[in-house]
């Protein structure tokens, strides 16, 4: 047998053996790095842990994972990397009330209850209590969110603050969850009236 023919057959046999391995590893690479299949910046930044390189003349995949062992951030200049993150800005954060509701408010509550015909005023809390609540909001499109908390009331010279912060501005990345932490403290001799309002418009 011709030696060259034998070498050619051996080479073809090796290719046939290695080809299934390459085909099987390709989907695994996409699963481990979901960024490589995102052709546009819009799709890229909607994928968690992905960043976009907008450097002019960049000849590689622009969507990449900064946390990967060999990130393209080594090749793409930092000033050309777009990797937005969640941003929280506290607009109003008054201190939680440490004292009980004033006697003037209690008198006003009693008189208001009698005038409205709802019966006598009831005290729903005999002791001051505090707790921490966390709310997790997941956004599916980049947006600005304004959160208002109904927690501050003023009657006469006194003001009762039961939740903090009272106003927050959030800028959320698409499909990335965010935990907003709020402190709540119930004032003595004060009715519970807790609500929050979120504006998810852009």
From TrEMBL:
Residues 33-68 form the Integrin beta N-terminal domain. The keyword Signal applies. GO terms for cellular component: cell surface; focal adhesion; integrin complex. InterPro entries: Integrin_beta_N, Integrin_bsu. GO terms for biological process: cell adhesion mediated by integrin; cell migration; cell-cell adhesion; cell-matrix adhesion; integrin-mediated signaling pathway. Gene3D superfamilies: ligand-binding face of the semaphorins, domain 2 (3.30.1680.10), ntegrin, alpha v. Chain A, domain 3 (2.60.40.1510). One of its GO terms (molecular function) is integrin binding. The keyword Disulfide bond applies. Transmembrane segments: none annotated. Residues 1-24 form the signal peptide. Keywords: Disulfide bond, Glycoprotein, Signal. PANTHER family: INTEGRIN BETA SUBUNIT, INTEGRIN BETA-PS. This is Integrin beta N-terminal domain-containing protein. It comes from Oryctes borbonicus.
């Amino acid at each position: 047998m011709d030696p060259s023919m034998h070498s050619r057959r051996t080479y073809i046999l090796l290719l046939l053996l290695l080809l299934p391995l390459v085909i099987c590893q390709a989907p695994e690479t996409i699963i481990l790095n979901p960024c490589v299949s995102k052709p546009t910046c819009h799709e890229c930044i909607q994928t968690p842990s992905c960043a976009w390189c907008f450097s002019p003349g960049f000849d590689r995949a622009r969507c990449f994972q900064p946390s990967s062992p060999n990130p393209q951030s080594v090749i793409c200049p930092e000033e050309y990397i777009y990797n937005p993150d969640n941003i929280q800005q506290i607009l109003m954060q008054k201190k939680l009330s440490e004292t009980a509701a004033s006697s003037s408010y209690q008198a006003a509550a009693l008189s208001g209850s009698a005038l409205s015909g709802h019966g006598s005023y009831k005290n729903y809390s005999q002791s001051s209590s505090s707790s921490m609540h966390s709310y997790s909001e997941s956004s599916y499109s980049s947006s600005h969110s304004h959160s208002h908390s109904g927690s501050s009331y003023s009657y006469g010279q006194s003001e009762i603050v039961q939740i903090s912060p009272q106003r927050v501005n959030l800028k959320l990345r698409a499909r990335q969850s965010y935990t907003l932490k709020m402190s709540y403290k119930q004032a003595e001799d004060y009715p519970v009236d807790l609500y929050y309002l979120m504006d998810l418009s852009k």
